[in-house]
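Q: What structure does this chain adopt?
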Amino acid sequence: MSTYLVTGGTGFIGRNVVTRLIAADPEATVFLLVRDGSLGRFERLIAELGPAAAPKVVPVPGDVELEGLGIAPEELPERVDHIVHLAAVYDMDAPEEHQRAANVDGTRHAAELALRYGATLHHVSSAAVAGSYEGTFGERDFDVAQDFPSAYHRTKFEAEKLVRETPGLKWQVYRPSVVVGDSVTGEIDKVDGPYYFFPILSWMSSLPRRLRLPFANLGYTNIVPVDFVAAALVALITGPEAHGEVFHLLNPQPQAMTELYNAVAPAFGGPKTVALPGGLIGELATRVGRRGEVRLFRDAAARQLGIPPSVLDYPFFKTTFTAERTLPKLRALGVELPPLRRYGPALFRYWEEHLDPGRNRRDDPRGPLVGKHVLITGGSSGIGREAAKQCVAQGATVFVLARKPDELAEAASGIEAEAAAPGIPKGRVWAYPCDVTDPEAVRQTVRAILAEHDHVDVLVNNAGRSIRRATINSVDRAHDYQRTMAVNYFGAVYLILELLPHMIARKSGHVVNVSSIGVQVRGPRFAAYVASKSALEAFSDVTAAETMSDHVTFTNIHMPLTRTRMIEPTTAYDNVTALRVEKAAGIVLRAIVERPRRIDSPLGTITQLGQFLSPRLTAAAQHQGYLLFPESAAALGIDDEDEPGFDGMTRRSRLARLAATRDRAQAMTHPLLGLAEETGLTKLARKAANRFPGINF
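A:
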């Protein structure tokens, strides 16, 4: 019965090796080095092995960066036959000191432990030891005066050199090339190497399939599927001893990028390519791309495409590898390297379903909202309730937030009962009571939603507080500004801050801010309200510029006056044309589906244009509106017409004064009104006044 100690056994290659090792040697016991941060992956491995095989895998706490691998003596038996050293840092962007600690020091610690036990060290090196060597590199080649283009290449070379030069050590070395997913299932655990270019290849599916694309052969890659690498490792580890031997687990026929594309293209129906000679072009492009004045822009473009800039520094192999000793031996052990054309489609299909950064942005064929998760604040009434209903009718799962639990629960039950759309599966609605002005309540609510429903695609900041009161009447009411900012600005920002990391991680997210036409118009008596909405828009515009590459987008809706309970206290709006709540909710739905940067109304845009072209005239018109339209009783803090407000004036006396002002203004503008009568503009002016009561047309 053999005893194995495996490092890196919870990694992508390691899990495949351990699974096959148990199958190949049923009597074996596998001790698996497990770091604290790898416990979750170890549990996944045990679950995959099943109840029969799992007891043969024994976890051993430790770390390759520590002396003796950090293993306490009592954790291992008296005899260890084989140490399979897979642990390494494969990230070329990792700091060099981190790579050196894991790749070089970790290998030294594994070699020392192998010497102590008299075990054979099976060191998994890499084809990267060839560095930038130009020529043929075989199993017996090692130090050929090659250069090392990165810390990864250098540390892998130094680690293998250490193994070779350790006196008395029994060793076998394995050099895989770029390891991709399983040749049957396509499974892989992360995007790496050629996978970074899959989004570009996928885009080519929109081109006609009959088309033959000229494609410059910029260089060669060398990929092998993980099941081949794992099967080869296990066959060679459990087979006849071959101390001092090096095995190349790679393709002796390097693949051009055109070959890789043509292998995966059948998975998405992309057109075939016609290879053009391009070695010189590739070398020139690589060298130019490394120039300081070019690299800055190149790296920025790469990050937007989701490609680490380091991948573009050394995208191709300059070395031609041979496997003259390895492949025949593997063939005799029953291990064959499958051709790329056979497993290429499986690689792409798995990536498309599980790893494509854009998979969370795809729409369901049945409708753009089917299956989407939408969080709406202020969902117990008004625009929020109606928007939730329309989203549910279109197949979305909606989370409605509001401060009062009873009203929210009643609204949620009504939304599901009323929502309906022919031909589309109805969604669901979930109620979450939450005071958005409390950051801790927001944090707990978002965590609960993500824990129970996995993700949020869209956030609609609809909850709002409006105050219509002149600034002079608010000089002793600082809380007017605090209240509006608490709900309209800080409440929305709290939610964005909680969801932003989640959306960036998913490379998908949209935030809809139900703002106001007031932000464009900036009419009198709305200083507190407009300031709070303007602050949210500024915050969102800045954040949108930062998250564009992460596909997190923002829409600001400059919503016209809408007939909701928010405007009920203002009697000036009683006879003014206002949007029905159904139409306003339809605007929110458009923002969710189409994701424009902003949605404006014609009146708001015209007013903004007037502020730009003639700010004094626009301000004068707004001042006339301020004089002609009085404060509401609610704004004055009075219920009875003869009761003094907080400014000392009664509603009756204020209305009388405003009526006198209006009469004087009409007398002054009588000739203009007469001209409007003659030209038929009066009706148009009245309609405009109804649309925007803050300006005297």
